[in-house]
Automatic annotation (TrEMBL):
Bilayer topology: Multi-pass membrane protein
Protein name: OSTA protein
GO cellular component: membrane
Principal place of residence: membrane
Transmembrane spans: 12-34, 46-67, 73-94, 137-161, 176-195
Gene: Slc51a_0
Subcellular location: Membrane
Superkingdom to which the source organism belongs: Eukaryota
Length: 300
């Protein structure tokens, strides 16, 4: 078994990371109870979903660390949950503005700047789009499609993996792994782009609700869960991360990614508790926050 093959420092490391995961779960449960009691019902479920991202990723990483053969399933579970959280974060920004109707009234003559990351940060020539019901629909669709299609693609990947057709380490144009990974990557960029467009517009209005630290935590989860894990897996696949018998390069890369994620998600869970636990007042009247120059504000 895995625990029998560990030396004393290895067992201490595994025990410490497991304890950090359990603490993160307990912190989240305590925070969820607080949110359920103190936050209005219209925002309650969205904020709980967002706060659950870090402890869920930490839990799946811990399970994958103890049970190496479950890594495929734990990574996919974290991926599905994270896809839903991206959509929830966009909806939270709309809710914090007072809902869709109030947002449209606050930014009646405003425009979205679509030349933002991660897709079009260099395309400064792109026009600014008027803020209407239709543009809000497209932004919500941009994150909703990710929450729908990523689970479908992940389910397809698991089916192909059980049949031996899906091998992540062998990205060949003739195999499905490369095409599914590229398609998921494109969907991810579109979803992150929609969130970035909305954040750029509301960040000044929602400054009194600490939207910038909340967005920073969300960005850290994106970078650590997606980019960091991908880089480590690529290094392991190229044998840059050396093997250490009985672990192959791929297995060692997986262990390193999981152990890093447990520590990082533990810190994010604790910081999220501080950021989201503060009591914020509703944005009424809207004149309490200065809006971006060039945008006309209308009192609701």
């Amino acid at each position: 078994s895995l625990s029998a093959g560990l030396d004393l420092p290895g067992r201490f490391l595994f025990a410490t990371l497991t304890l950090m995961t359990l603490i993160a779960i307990l912190v989240f449960i305590e925070e969820a109870v607080y949110i359920y009691r103190k936050i209005p019902s219209s925002k309650r479920s969205i904020i709980i979903w967002i706060n659950a991202a870090a402890p869920v990723i930490s839990t799946t990483s811990c399970i994958g660390m103890w049970v190496p053969r479950s890594t495929m399933f734990t990574d996919f579970t974290a991926g599905i949950f994270f896809a839903i959280v991206i959509h929830k974060f966009l909806m939270m920004m709309i809710k914090e503005c007072g809902g869709q109707k109030m947002l449209l009234r606050r930014f009646e003559n405003g425009r979205f700047t679509i030349s933002t990351g991660p897709c079009c940060c260099c395309c400064l020539c792109l026009p600014r789009v008027p803020i209407t019901r239709q543009t809000l629909f497209w932004l919500k669709l941009g994150t909703f499609q990710f929450a729908v299609f990523r689970p479908v693609l992940i389910f397809l990947s698991i089916v192909l993996w059980t049949n031996g057709n899906y091998v992540l380490n062998k990205l060949s144009p003739k195999g499905p792994a490369l095409w599914i990974s590229c398609f998921i990557g494109a969907l991810t960029l579109c979803a992150l782009w929609a969130v970035g467009i909305m954040f750029r517009k509301v960040r000044i209005l929602l400054k009194c609700k600490n939207i910038i630290p909340k967005f920073a935590l969300y960005q850290f989860i994106v970078i650590l869960n997606q980019l960091q894990t991908t880089i480590i897996n690529i290094l392991a696949a190229q044998k840059i991360i050396p093997c250490a018998p009985p672990l192959s390069s791929t297995a060692r890369g997986s262990y390193i990614a999981q152990q890093l994620l447990i520590m990082e998600m533990f810190l994010i869970t604790v910081i999220s508790r501080v950021v989201y636990r503060r009591k914020y007042h509703d944005l009424e009247p809207p004149e309490c926050v200065a809006e971006e120059p060039g945008d006309k504000k209308q009192t609701p």
